[in-house]
Amino acid sequence: MAGNALEGVKIADFTWSVAGPLTVKFLADHGAEVIHVESSTRPELLRVLPPYRDRKPGLNRSAYNACLNNNKYGLSLDMNHPRAKEVLQRLIDWADVVTENFSPGVMAKWSLSYEDLVKIKPDMIMFSTSQMGQTGPRAKIAAYGTQLVSLAGFTYLTGWPDRDPTGPYGPYTDTTIPHVGVAAIMTALIRRRRTGKGTHIDISQFETALNFISPILLDYAINHRVATRKGNRCSDSVPHGAYRCRGEDRWCAIAIFSDEEWGRLCRVMGRPELQTVPGFASFEQRRKNEDEIDRLISEWMAERPAEEVMCRLQEAGIAAGVAQTGRDLLEKDPQLAHRGFFQELEHKEIGRHYYEAPPFRLSKTPCELTTPGPCMGEHNEYVCKKILGFSDKEYSSLMADNVLR
Amino acid sequence: MLPYRVLDLCDGEVTFCGKILGDLGCDVIKVEKPGGDPSLNLRPFDHDSSDPQKSLARLAYNTNKRSITLNLESADGKEIFKRLVQKADVVLESFPPGHMAGLGLGYEELSKVHPRLVMTSITPFGQSGPYRDFKASDLTLWCLGGMAYVSGDPDRAPVQVSSPQSYLHGAAAAAAATLIASYYRELTGDGQWIDVSIQEAVVHTLMNVVQFWDVSGIVLKRSGVFRTGLSTAANQRLIWRCKDGYVNFPIYATAGGAQSNAKLVRWMESEGIRDEYLSGIQWEEFDLSTASQEQFDRVEGPIGRFFKSHTMDELYQGAMERGIMLYPVYGAKEIREDPQLMARGFWTSVGHPELGEVTPFPGSPFVFSGERRNTHRAPLLGEYNEDIYCAELGISEEELVTLKKAGVI
User: Which of B1, B41, B367 lies at the smallest CB-CB distance from A191?
Assistant: First the structure.
């Protein structure tokens, strides 16, 4: 596998759900060798969440789980089995990096805390990411990213001022972790290469997510103002919104920052006179009459397909974008298609389905999506014999004792 | 921790990339146009001043950097930039595709000056393709990345987060990619060029939305205060009103969720709120994916009434004591006062001459073996010109004055 940036990096991956697996997936996409450890005795959350192939549930049928774990080997291990430690011992000996995102304390129950790991391997790198971080009075409270979205301010900041807040889709704060997590792991690997020292990385999802609303937090700290949701309004731009287009639930967004852009928009709409009409000529005037401007734009867009509106506005040099659905992204978006963002792989139970490349391309060592997310325990034999070096006999004995399940 | 010199040419919120590298110990030099970076004239401002140096986004996303000014359009500026590149490990830039090459400062040229260079280009749609020259904003990228469509109320337009997000995801992706390439350079000595698409970074926030279409033929839609993506049989409330605000409480199906639900029902009972239907539910057997709308309505009625009789604080405290998965819907004030963040030393004090006060800043997200790097305030425009140009490049003070007069620095 020449040409992979992370060839030779070995990761024992104990992560589950979204934040941890996606972090490690980006490394696997660039050639890191990853053994993803899980157990059918307590299947991870995403194996029992949709979307399932043809809407039929099954431990190996969720594309949610599969798409966050491509390029990884799947090892199923009953962590509470007395013989699990035989496998874990070899896994730790093999690994450069251990990754996990359990509540703090869970790894310690299996004798896999950072302190345990460095006894076996003094230069081990451990990546831990949890909701609240490894320390502090609330480190161990149980919750999912769906809820941290609210604690970290995103719910309050998303929705319409005259309505209850809604938040962005899903466990959004989980998605602030993967790139920051990759940056942390790479930093630790680079440092270990230069100094020989390992480290324990502690990333709090709460703290990381807050880095995505820093200006809001400073606005409170400095100006004592609590920012709130404002629909699609923006303090630097008028008009600024998503407007209904022709068809069912089709929308196109635009953002106008300058008088010049406003003039161009007026011309595209066939209303050049609006550019200089009192009430619309300056930013401050447009701010005052924003409702009226929104109404005019809505009228113009209502009869036109969203894609056509976007292209006409873009030709005039205006920032415009269709509110794309999951289907649009996969089947219609010519840019994502051009970049080969979605790549099809054949999964044993899901069949052929699409996986996502990382949002970056390295010119000399591009990502390669090679194998689909593993079925539960799909690579047990390969991992045990070829990577961890168990003999045929030892492997059979582990199987017979139900350790690998 | 990282012994790299980074030249940061990014504008707007993409400059978050350089901050991440700064938080990880890189020596990040922000190279700015003389006169500053207009794209960071973003509201809100300190005390509502309109001085771009006081843009809070600028203050937040340029910590742990030094600033110099340089006009890359001028011949002298290009020459000086190449000299800076020779001493650097990484160049970050977010100009439109082709702009750097047009200046004679594209990857091809710079890698001749410095073959080990990692150059990271961050643009809305990437360096090639039909949308490469499209104009973009936070909202249009949020839309084209698919996140807007699934966010907000179903009877209104797809909606943004009222604090820009799209560019930040692109910036974080760029930091990750830069360090993957830097690791490869450690091994091989080879630099390379990285092409980051902010649109793709937004698509990666969607989790399972594309997969819903791909394997199940379902176009997920936004669902307001309800959860979507788990069941198609019923609306499941996620955001609830309480006495003085809102709380987040999903009814979970997993083992942990069953316990959490049961504990909430017991709490309600202990306060005299007893509902026959609710108390009779065996939560381990309550199947979220098939439960009907009527079942959910009967569950949610009494729970909603209970929440309305308590404050956000009472509910959060009570939930933590009992192990119930309920979180408050915080605004900036409650976040600032959160005891967990304080205990971990998340907030850092940053003195700033322009602010005239020490302000609690959100800290770095990176804790390595218990250590978090201190946050050093964002630099003033060109604050380090003398340090870099005179002390490092050996430009004399007279030459510097000449370059300033010529608008190069």
Answer: B1
